[in-house]
Design a protein that fits this description.
The protein is mainly α. It is built from eight helices and three strands; from the N terminus they run ααααβββαααα. Helices cover 73% and strands 5% of the residues. Helix 1 packs antiparallel against helix 8 and helix 4 crosses helix 5.
């Protein structure tokens, strides 16, 4: 019964947060598709060159930079100290996205490593907890729910701090980069930045909800599996 209550509460929390945050993913996707702005940012150098210039601006000359055209997600990998730039061609968001990853590369390495370690611990413990519960080794399932919730929210707070910091600062770093290049007129640059502001207003909420959803989803899956095991 306790496991059913936990599962129900998680579902209620996720639904309530989605309603409260009022995350409009349709608008977010539509905002990224603006051909007139794409044409403006196409005047700028290739993504790797942008990344190198921005990293130089913030004093990071040691990070490795590569472009992965097969990927849709840009990443900074603390393990290899590498920025991997996704296929961002023909997208006006690319300057801010590259700036975002450059900021990640300059964040506190202790927090970056903590995020990496806890994220992997959470995934490994989640799998172990399910297997040991199925095989009857973990008897106290509510204890496992508590442990998964604690690790999950630790992961959420670490990742949320890193992402919010990068998302907020990326807009201003992108502005400074565009100003130094002197490719756009002030009005053109302001139009792009104005759209970045709208995207970020929705994006910060969407990112935080995604992180909470990811953390609670594992707890929900474990609780459902543990309940099924308990009735057989």
């Amino acid at each position: 019964m306790n496991l059913l209550i936990v599962s129900s509460l998680i579902l209620i929390i996720l639904i309530a947060l989605k309603i409260i945050l009022n995350i409009d993913m349709i608008t977010l996707k539509e905002m990224t598709k603006k051909k007139d702005l794409d044409e403006l940012t196409n005047k700028f150098p290739e993504n790797i060159e942008i990344c190198k210039k921005i990293c130089s601006m913030i004093g990071n000359t040691k990070v490795k930079i590569e472009e992965d055209n097969s990927s849709k997600t840009s990443l900074y990998l603390v393990v290899t100290n590498k920025i991997s730039i996704a296929n961002l061609k023909n997208s006006f968001t690319r300057i801010q996205t590259v700036a975002h990853e450059c900021i990640h590369s300059m964040q506190d390495k202790r927090i970056l490593w903590a995020n990496f370690i806890f994220s992997n611990i959470y995934l490994i413990y989640f799998i172990i907890a399910i297997l040991l519960t199925i095989f009857g080794i973990f008897k106290d399932t509510m204890l496992q729910v508590g442990i998964l919730t604690l690790i999950g929210f630790t992961c959420y707070f670490l990742r949320s701090y890193l992402e919010d910091d990068a998302m907020i600062k990326a807009r201003y770093l992108a502005r400074e980069y565009m100003k130094t290049e002197r490719i756009l007129t002030p009005n053109q640059m302001q139009e792009i930045l104005g759209n970045y502001d709208i995207l970020n207003k929705i994006g910060v909420k969407a990112m935080n909800y995604k992180l909470i959803f990811s953390a609670l989803l594992k707890v929900l899956i474990y609780a459902i599996i543990a309940y099924i095991v308990s009735i057989y």
